[in-house]
Amino acid sequence: MIILIAAAAENNALGKDNQLLWHLPEDFKRFKQITSGNYIIMGRKTFESFPKPLPNRTHVIITRQKDYIAEGCIVVHSLEEAIEISPKEEEVFVIGGAEIYKQSIENADKIELTRVHSEFEADAFFPEFNTSNWNLVFSEKHTKDEKHQYDYTFETYLKK
């Protein structure tokens, strides 16, 4: 099962200058809980935005750079190659960035989306998806508090 996992604003903003636009500790916690123990597919720039590889996950990095090396990670040169080397019987998570989401949304079986209830100036956006092709099977709203600057909703969509 191919699962896209992302946090996106009301205007689908994901980030700017390879940085997230908000800090939502509960979203980080959910991301860790959902992806731990699994393969995570990402673009090179997304990988390079991390201070170090994320623990307890197999990193699959997509890059056009033929000589790119990331210690302890699997480096491939296309989304198809990333999917091919990932286990077929397990959940595989696409974690970004914008171009990788755009390429993979048609192949996705599920979307785990944190919708941040604000709009942001950004240079990376989650792709538009037709909600008539997806069933919203889970929705949990959270209001801003001392640790979370914005209201947000955890949403899970399954492809029809």
Set down the secondary structure blueprint.
Elements: E1 2-9, E2 13-16, E3 19-20, H1 25-35, E4 39-43, H2 44-48, E5 58-62, E6 74-76, H3 79-85, E7 92-94, H4 98-104, E8 110-116, E9 124-125, E10 134-142, E11 152-159
Parallel strand pairs: 1-7, 1-8, 4-5, 4-7, 5-6
Antiparallel strand pairs: 2-3, 2-9, 8-11, 10-11
Could you characterize what this model shows?
The chain is an alpha/beta fold and 160 residues long. It is built from four helices and eleven strands. Helix 2 (44-48) links the parallel strand 4 (39-43) and strand 5. The two termini are 14 Å apart.
Structure keywords:
160 residues; alpha/beta; 3-stranded antiparallel β-sheet; 11 strands; 19% helix; globular
Summarize the structure.
The protein is built from 4 helices and 11 strands. With 160 residues, the protein is of the alpha/beta class.
What string gives the helices and strands in order?
A: EEEHEHEEHEHEEEE
Number of extended strands = 11
Strand content: 35-45%
Helical region count?
Answer: 4
Structural class: alpha/beta
Uncertain runs with pLDDT below 50, 5 residues or more?
none
What is Rg? Answer: 15 Å
Distance between the termini: 14 Å
- Enumerate the strands of the largest sheet in spatial order, edge to edge or round the barrel: 6-5-4-7-1-8-11-10
| Helix residue percentage | 10-25%
Mean pLDDT: 97
Largest sheet, in brief, is: 8 strands, mixed
Tell the overall outline.
globular
